[in-house]
């Protein structure tokens, strides 16, 4: 599960690539609208956890 203090850099690189591939301008809004799609790529995380991950990695 996501531990905000201990997000692996590999996970952030996956998130940055995800944002680039899907051409997402507002990642947090995108997660709100498309959580089921995000869950395909992050099946272990809740929508809220995915949002926190994205915020952490894209800050």
Automatic annotation (TrEMBL):
Residues 10-58 form the aECM cysteine-cradle domain. It comes from the Eukaryota. Pfam families: CCD_aECM (PF23626). This is aECM cysteine-cradle domain-containing protein. It comes from Wuchereria bancrofti.
């Amino acid at each position: 599960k996501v531990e905000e203090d201990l997000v692996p850099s590999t996970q952030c690189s996956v998130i940055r690539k995800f944002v680039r591939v899907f051409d997402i301008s507002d990642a947090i809004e995108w997660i709100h609208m498309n959580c089921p799609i995000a869950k395909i790529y992050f099946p272990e995380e809740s929508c809220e956890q995915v949002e926190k991950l994205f915020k952490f990695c894209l800050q």
